[in-house]
Amino acid sequence: MHSTNLLLEEPVRMASILEPSKPSFFPAMTKIVGTLGPKSRSVEIISSCLEAGMSVARFDFSWGDAEFHQETLENLRAAIKKSKKLCAVMLDTGGPELQVVNKSEHPISLQADSLVVLTPDQDKEATPNLLPINFSGLSKSVKNGDTIFIGQYLFTGSETTSVWLEVREVKGEDVVCLIKNSATLAGPLYTLHVSQIRIDLPTLTDKDKKVISSWAVRNKIDILSLSYTRHAEDVRHAREFLSKLGDLNQTQIFAKIENVEGMGNFDEILGEADGIILSRGNLGIDLPPEKVFLFQKAAVHKCNMAGKPAVVTRVVDSMTDNLRPTRAEATDVANAVLDGSDAILLGAETLRGLYPVETISTVGKICAEAEKVYNQDVYFKRAVKYVGEPMTHLESIASSAVRAAIKVKASVIICFTSSGRAARLIAKYRPTMPVLSVVIPRLKTNQLRWTFSGAFQARQSLIVRGIFPILADPRHPAESTNAADESVLKVALDHGKTAGVIKPHDRVVVFQKVGDSSVVKIIELEN
User: Which of 46, 144, 147, 461 could connect to 195 by a Cys-Cys bridge, CB 3.0–4.6 Å?
Assistant: First the structure.
């Protein structure tokens, strides 16, 4: 059976369904972003998460202080050394997120068909009839009949921990709402989301800038997740801010699309950002449920054609409290892979979930199974057609490398790169085999000191589907010289052999620069 993104071969495929999944050094080509928090911050748990397949660690600054996150990051570094697994660091900004403040932290029970008042007076205590919020402009933004959603932080949409409100009256700065379902809110903070209403707050808040200027600079973060990105200008503003902060001029910016305003400006945002995160939690509130999958498919396709990573969130919410996902969630993960997603982002599931390691392992296994039936041939032709002619020199060679690797049934593609761009272009054409990206550091100076680039570029590729980076010895140039060539190629081949993806008599496709040209060569290995 053939379809656009799915390739099934009968009866071989039916028989293989009954076979157990085989463990491998690379759990899946699709990457997994894990949010580190109270249930996933010890060295032991983080090490297990890395072993299970997490390649990007997300630090969410919409809660917790810098000291808490710093301790978690130190544990991550220890876990990386222990497990010998590379991991990128993503900082997720709070952005203009509206929150209900419950200073007492006592559970609040809200009853359906009762009235509750939302007030900007944060000195008042939260009760079933009064909820203080962190935004004074809500009364100017909403009108009668508007829908407001309040839920436990990183809410799952469960009717017992989240509540729908309907605006009934605006009284000065207060907003009177009708409670649509009974729920109990627990904890100090709950997210508040107003459906399809523009909130007049900056995307990069003063609090975000303070965190970036201190914590992010100190820790040289690899990726900034820009929450509530609504315009391309938001990304430009963030990039300008990062450019003045030393090494953070190398930090990539991923635009987090969370509402209809961001959706409306998606093409312009994609042009400016280094990648896209589809925040399906908030999108699922702003959009009717039957429209969410349409936006996901359209957005992921646009990212694929642009060669920029697409990250999908909120896939296995039930694993926050359960050891197995629902059947619908398992299918959702597989469909995200078949749509072309580069990575799956786990939030509550790993941050406060009971089974962070099992969740990562389960999602990785589902991704690996979906990748086996991904219709690469159809995708490749679509990508080539979209790019059109004439292709750039580098894109032409990159796509040729993928086609050659598939034709000769190569076990891996080895790519020498210094910026990471060549490896990302190869990954854009979704090869069916891993891309071992050998990142060659470059020596550079700011006239005060000499430094090597390369570490950022290596870690940033950990969110791109199919790329597995190796940071090479800086004495090896990215361009071809016979002695250096043989040495660095041997390092890559040895890594592939250790990982179990390269075996005797395998064919390997090598992509590298020779002078001003890029070349592809096919190597057949001996014993």
Answer: 147
